[in-house]
Each structure stands twice: as structure tokens, then as C-alpha cells.
Amino acid sequence: MSNKIRWGVLGGGGDSLIGVLHRVAASMFDAYQLTGAVFNPDFEANKAFANEIGIPTSRIYKDFDTMVAEELKLAKSERIQVFSVLTPNFLHFPMAKKLLENGFHVICEKPMTMTYAEALELEAIQKQNNNIFALTHTYTGYPMVRQMKKMIEEGVLGDIQKVDVQYYQGWINPIIHDKEKRNTTWRLDPSKSGISCCMGDIGVHAYQMLEFVTGMEVKTILADLNHLYDDNQMDIDGTVLVRLGKYTKGVIRASQIATAEENNFAVAVYGKKGALKWEQENPNYLYHLVDGEPIKTLKPGNVYNSKLSLDGTKLPPGHPEGIFDAMGNIYKGVAKAVRNQPYDKAEFPSMRDGVRGMNFIETSVASHKEGNVWKEL
């Protein structure tokens, strides 16, 4: 009998980029077996897609509720163990809630929920049922981000003084400047996306990365968001000042109208003894800066890297690793947790990351609406 983890997928059918990303990531370390799914709300399209990617249709279900009910009828040794929730934002909370309440482990796309209150409710359910919950802040899976975290943890930079995180994209430009498009896309519909577009989609990645690599928690924030048009209800650009301590401050800059930018995600951490810089579009380079010394460039796969970084490196030095590999590292960490194997808590973002992320999104919007004032997290 296969010892692979039985894995179910919700959403991610057809030409969904996120669906491909998760399927490739789950296949990387031979830990998961795609066992059942509801890829699409159209049952015929759902079965057709299963045939297209070559999986049996016997556990392709017509809808989510049917899937949970039918899986619970099976013996625990046959039942799906882990579900990935890849649906639009407004479905994350009800699906994750029902899965956790019924004993399933969950891997969820972000934002975790639509509201901070929902996030707290989900956290309480997870604690009560003791399920594994992973939130796919994919960039934490990059080997050199993990190296950055460990170097800061070991005191290489000394006391942290300044953090600067940028996430610039330009993809929404063709939509936002067309009145009909901006009023009909689900991304700009609060009932489907939540109260924030830019901060909810990419700003929360920058916020989570800031706390992940520094090991510190943001205490207060001041946000200035941009909607660009009066009839657009959601932010598509913004700057958030952050305070992590009395003398540790930073900035989060996020935009979906940064014309011609693709996926310009970068993080820089400046300490008393040095600095570290990483860019997602060049993920194999971690730059270490020290006053009076040449810039050092660290690369994945080399023996000078941490155990956590090397565990997430699949290729010898000099061979690029990318976003599929980063997502694969998150799935690898979840597999260790499901199997009760030892794992580093940095191997996958947790429920707590989701709760803090939703708090950040809501507080950013409140800070802006109240006149760009400081707000406690």
C-alpha cells in the first residue's frame, strides 16, 4: 500500500496558474497522492479536467459539501488527509472551517479569510481540533529567504534598525483604467475579495515576510492607500509605515499600478552590524552588506548555508531554483508535520501568520480611512 499522503484539491482547475503551482509542488518530494477534488463548480467540467490531467474520476465530486460528506463515510485509512483550498478569497474561511471541524489538515491560499474576526475563529477551531494548517506565503520557501532568517536569528546583523519591503506589480493597469472592467472584476469586488485588493493580495506577503525574516512582530502601523478612482472601492496601491519597537522602524510599499513591473518583491533588513537584501526576481542571491567591506553574495546549495536553507535546496550550487521549488518546500514541511516527523517551525507559514495577516490588512485600511493615523496591531 502506498505511504503517500492522500491529498484533495478545492479549486485550481482549468488554466489556473495557482492550480498548476500546487500540483507541481505537491509532486516534488513524492509525499502526496492526488486522491480527490472539486476543481470546478461545473461537475462535467470538473470530471473533464480530472481526465485531462490523468486522475480517476471516482472521487471527483459535484461540490464541496458532497466531497466532505462522502470522504467522512470512508475508513480513516482511505480518507483524504490534507485538503488544499485554492478557491477565490470569500470561500477560504467556510471551506477551511468545515475541513478543520471534521478533522482534515488544510493548506490554504492567502488571504486566509475575509476578516480578522474570521481568522481568530479559525485559529480557535484549529487549536481545539489540533489540525495541521499551512498558509501558502510561498516566498518563505526560497532557500535564500530561509538563510536570511537564520542569519538574522543568529545575530549576524546585530540589533535590527530598519526594514524596507517592496512588492510592486503593474498587472491591474489594463483593468483599473477601464470603468466597466474595474466595476466587474472579482478582484475589486469587496464581497468576493474582502476589504482590500493590494494590501490583501500582495501587501500581506510583504508584511508576513517582514515578520518572518526578522523574527519580530509589528506593533503599530500607519497606512496611506490609493484607490485611484472614486468609483473603485478597494485599494490598488499603498505605503505602510511600521514600528517593530521603539528604535526599530520600517516601511512596506505595495502597488498593483507600478506600470510595467512584473513581480518586483524585495526585502532589505538593516542592523547595527550589517544588512541583508533579497529580491524575488533574482531569488538565488542573498546580499550581505557590512560597512567597509565588499558586498558578499550568498547562493543556495553551498555548505556555508544553514541546515534549513540546505534542506530546501534540491539542486547543486549554480542551478537556479524558483517559485515551484519554494511552494514545494512548503508542501514538504506540511508532509513532515502530518507524518509526525521532526520539522522546523519555519518550514511553512502557520495559522498565526494568517491571523496576523488579516489583522494587518484591516488595520491598514482603518489607518487610511481615519486620516492616516497610527494604529496598534
UniProtKB/TrEMBL annotation:
Residues of the Gfo/Idh/MocA-like oxidoreductase N-terminal domain: 6-136
Protein origin, superkingdom: Bacteria
GO molecular function annotation: nucleotide binding
Residue ranges occupied by any GFO/IDH/MocA-like oxidoreductase domain in the UniProt entry: 145-276
One Pfam family cited in the UniProt record for this chain: GFO_IDH_MocA
Record-linked InterPro entries: Gfo/Idh/MocA-like_OxRdtase_N (IPR000683), Gfo/Idh/MocA_oxidoreduct (IPR051317), GFO_IDH_MocA-like_dom (IPR055170)
Protein name: Gfo/Idh/MocA family oxidoreductase
Lineage: Bacteria, Pseudomonadati, Bacteroidota, Flavobacteriia, Flavobacteriales
